[in-house]
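Budget justification, computational time. The allocation requested in the original proposal was used primarily to generate structure tokens for proteins on the priority list. As evidence of use, we reproduce two of the resulting records. The first is shown immediately below.
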Amino acid sequence: MECEIAREALSARMDGEHEPVPARRVDEHLASCPECRQWQDELNSQMDVLRGLIAADRTRMSAVTDSVSQPALPETRDGLDWGSVALGVAMLVAADRPAAAMGLAIVGGVFTLVLTGYVVVDGLTGAVGAVRMLSHLPALAGVVLTVLVWRRHTLEPPRPDRDAAPTLDDITLPDNASRGRRRGHLWPTDGNAA
């Protein structure tokens, strides 16, 4: 038997797969070939290292899973949430600039949705007090107002500026007139009139 075939069979045996040749013939080859015995010993030592790494990784993952499944409760805090206040102020500024309201409504909506989840969990676990939970109301009110401004801005036609000069679309022409410049009705000034 060739060494390559024996090593392929040994590798399949190590992996628990079907060997390509009878196991008896592989064992006979191992008894007579010192190179294949050394190859098998190296393969066994590598497999032992891999098994150790897998076991260590499983132990680490188990420790991480245990620590995640039983989180430590944060200390109870009461106070004003300045991030929510800043977001509320930004939304009030957007009320002055309706074109930017849509983007702010989307960002603020996602923010308050995630924030609501945290507030509910923190409230149920007792991690925060009522004052802290109520400090998020300006952000929620800001999102609602920003959505209302955005909706009003998109539904309402734009108002013309009173100081702006009239455009061609603003001018009413008689029925026989056309917009634009007529071409070919002027005579050259440097030409001969005769």
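The second record produced under the same allocation is shown here.
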Amino acid sequence: MGVIKGRMKEQQVPVNVSEVIKARAYPVGDERDFYSLIGRMVTLQDREIGVFRTSDGGLFALDNVRINPEGIRLTEGIVSGHTVYDPSDDWKVDLETGDVTREASNITKVPAYRVHIMKSKLYIVLA
């Protein structure tokens, strides 16, 4: 018997993108459970996450934090455009980036997460 020389060719298995997303994404409910202009809190891996639907149908997810220790959580804020804000405490958070706009705030950015919809189910991707 002879020795086989050379290397075996690696097989490439086709990757289904939706399977990769599911591996990192967590289901949080049905798409119709999230109403326009109202934040809703969900819990994933011991994290409170606020999910927001804008008037144009966009869906966003941010950590559900308090910008001011005595203030309200993000899900209790008012959604306007792609911003959630508290008029009594004068903070605004960009729903797309998590950037905080407020004078003398110790928080300048809130972690933001990607949101995916597959077959009317809402998934949040935690990195």
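A brief technical remark on that second record: The two ends are 52 Å apart (CA to CA).
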